Amino acid sequence: MARYQETTQTETLHLPPNITSRGVAATELRPWGAFTVLEEGRGYKIKRIEVKPGHRLSLQMHHHRSEHWIVVSGTARVTCGEQEVLLSNNESTYVPQCTSHRLENPGVIPLVLIEVQNGEYLGEDDIIRYQDDYARTKD
Questions:
Q1: What is the mean pLDDT of residues 16-25?
Q2: pLDDT at 25
């Protein structure tokens, strides 16, 4: 009878320091819904964003980052510069750095999307708000 030995190899993936993950933040609640940081590294951040039906984020702009939005479920009304588009699941859009933009949920179910941010600085304080339904603009 032939004998065999089962072996298991575990390979460790070593990432260069410029793309090492910094962990996952807890979900942060907002008046319009919530977001969760899924991963963050040097020059990028990935978030899961959920927008309540009938709510919208502020009309805003970022000096230091661009954003890619991919709709997972629901309907997104996106304002980017002078253009407005409706997106459904598996559709996406790009928001260039220094461009005014807004995300809305015109539907009746929660809007869920994945946001990929790229830039030299990705802090939440890099938001210039022009209009806000929740009085968060600076006068």
A1: 51
A2: 63
In the chain, where does DSSP find H-type helix? none
**pTM for this one?**
0.80
Q: How far apart are CA 64 and CA 15, in angstroms?
A: 25
Closest CA to 59 of 135, 138, 128, 139: 128
Dihedral sign from CA coordinates of 105, 107, 108, 110? negative
Selection from 63, 102, 62, 67 nearest residue 82 by Cα: 102
Cβ contact 21:40 at 8 Å: yes
Q: Is the pLDDT of residue 95 over 50?
A: yes
DSSP symbol at 20: -
Note whether 76 and 86 are within 8 A (CB).
yes
Distances (CA, A) of 76 to 58, 84, 133: 14, 10, 17
Residue 57 has pLDDT above 90, yes or no: yes
